[in-house]
Amino acid sequence: ASHTMLPFGDINVVVLTDVHSWVSGHSSTHQPHLNADYGHVLSFYKHIQDILQSPEYEEHRNLFFVMNGDFMDGTGLSTNPPNELLPILEHMPWNALNVGNHELYANSTVEAIVKKPGGFADWWGGRYLTSNVVLRRNGEPLGSRYTIMHGGDGTTKVITFGFLYDMQDAVKKVKVEPVEEVIVSKWFRSALVDEHFDAILVLAHMDFKDELVQVLLEGIREVVGLKVPVQFITGHSHIRAYDNSTGVCSTSFEAGKYLDTVGFVSFSKDSSCEFNHVFIDGSIDSLREAVGVKAFNTDDGEALSSYIVEAQERMGLLEVVGCAPKHYSYEWNMTSGSRSFWRIYLEDIVPQSKLFHRGKSSHRKALLQDTGAFRYDLFEGVQTVNDVLALSPFNDTFYLVGSNISGSVIKHIYQELTVYENKTMFGTVQSYPKYGFAPRGPIAANDSYELYSSGFGLEDVVNALHELHEIDVEPKELKFASTSMIIDYISKSWPCSNSHAASGASHHPSRPHFPVDVKDVIPARTKESNITLIFLSVVYFAGVCAFLSYRRRKRRRAERMVIENSESEFEPVTVAVFA
Questions:
Q1: How far is CA 306 from the centre of its chain?
Q2: What Rg, from alpha-carbon coordinates, does the chain have?
Q3: In the prediction, which pLDDT does 336 show?
Q4: Which residues contact 154 (CB under 8 A, 6 or more apart)?
Q5: How far apart are CA 568 and CA 58, in angstroms?
Q6: What is the rounded CA–CA span in Å between residue 512 and residue 519?
Q7: Dist CA 400 CA 355 (whole Å)
Q8: What pTM was estimated for this model as a whole?
Q9: Above 90 in pLDDT, residue 334?
């Protein structure tokens, strides 16, 4: 018997959003309080299914499971294309999935989603939703415009949409249609008029208080009136938040990031307009407590957990590269001294790297580095390949911008480009410069420099040279990349002691080689291979090599994360470490 504390209602929804490939959960060495992986989430969902079959919950059997986008970019499992990640996702029994912006930055990922037969969208049989994302060549949606979810009671129907914010920097293969235009389109209004449903669920990959949430609600209300319940599942800004001020009989719910949170919402299917929500920490104990069972792991859940580990092992992600002497913050805070990873990166890692010691040039070296490169902390102790990729998932390729550029010019463009931006990240306002500069210290105005830049941000640097100083350059792509550089530094400068190795990962310490330009290493994925799991034939390091050849030309820098003062409930993540 179970003693669940979940607030069941007419319609119940388990929510995941912005997991960014953290399907294995967080390191049991560094963050044991966030140890749940997708297998544990699957067990959690299965337990809720079982609970709702008991007679006492006969009126609450309408259970749905949704994923609100951004499964890409975050750990080593997110390669380009995501050949190892997609089969893991396809083990999750989602009733509806939404597209996130991070799925739209690389052509190969888009192709893996839309290819037929056997593509990711095809796998879900109409449940992968792209209400405002279409293929540019023919105007057809990547997935489906909407779906009707059928409840377990045999009568309840929930019409479900999947919207993305008005993204401007997707790859050219796709077009993100403005939400404002879609809500007046014929198909959208026809769906709301012609379909029969009891409630509306909107998966919206945007901040919980994005103005587009209100735009969507107004478009819906214009057609269906005020009495139909509308539940928004939001995301993108990586916070826990809830807003019950969106309008009559409607709320907005956002459930964290990186699998630090499993969300649960319930709401009525009539004009009583009762809404409830719970944020559950991404830990095995928290999930077990939420469903009130002692024997938590299910067979399906254990199988998926094992498969995730096998995928990581195939890709070499669990190999130890070194041991960090302390906990480093990924945030831009050069005043935090030795705890700032940006400080050690710009003062030690870059100057000691092969990038700054290539060739026989007598010119000094300088690097302008985009500050969106790092995404997570590096914790004290044993570091695996996956730990480093969690810190630096994009592995930006470096370019030689020019080889005889004066220090005065570099100083000028650095000052012009390095504007501090106030962003609301993870619930707190932080000030970030757009670029970091290496080596740290004053720029010698009269000296000549070889100027380097990361791939993302290169266009800004080139344009600044032209517009401010009428200097035209032809950047040269190099066989050096940021994550590879960090791994080289850790393996050489932070070797593990015997005690570290014994207490950390079980694999033998090694320093894998990561070629920058390895293509087509992993065979094409087919639906049959998903079913039979024929990924054991993938070469040991193929996945990582494919990831590290992943060169992000486009990446959204300023995420729409403004949280306004309102009649809303804001719940920051308290158990995860976001120093």
A1: 22
A2: 24
A3: 58
A4: none
A5: 32
A6: 17
A7: 10
A8: 0.85
A9: no
Q: Which two three-digit tokens encode residue 342? A: 């940006």
Burial 536-572 (b: 16+ CB within 10 A, else e): eebeebbbbbbbbbbbbeebbeebbbebeeeebebbe
Residue length of the chain: 579
Q: Which of 526, 49, 84, 15 is nearest to 311 (CA)?
A: 84
Q: pLDDT for 406-442, tens place per residue?
A: 999 999 999 998 866 554 444 445 556 888 999 988 8
Quick check: 262 and 16 in contact, CB under 8 A?
Answer: yes
State phi, psi for 171 to the nearest 5 degrees. -60, 160
- Residue 335 is given by DSSP the state G
Ramachandran bin of 367, using left for φ above 0, alpha for ψ from -120 to 50, beta for the remaining angles = beta
**C-beta of residue 233 within 8 angstroms of C-beta of residue 253:** yes
The pair phi, psi for residue 215, each rounded to 5°, is -60, -45
- Asked if residue 230 lies in contact with residue 250, where contact means CB atoms within 8 angstroms, the answer is yes
375: tokens are 């995404």
In terms of Cα–Cα distance, which of 568, 555, 569, 566 is closest to 72? 555
Any idea of the CA torsion for 220, 222, 224, 229, to the nearest 10 degrees?
Answer: 50
Phi then psi for 405, rounded to 5 degrees? Answer: -115, 130
Beta bridge partners, 41, equal none
Phi, psi of 321 (to 5 degrees): -110, -15
CA–CA separation, 531 vs 542, rounded Å? 21
Which DSSP helix (H) or strand (E) runs through 463?
helix 458-469
- Between CA 559 and CA 207 the distance in angstroms is 9
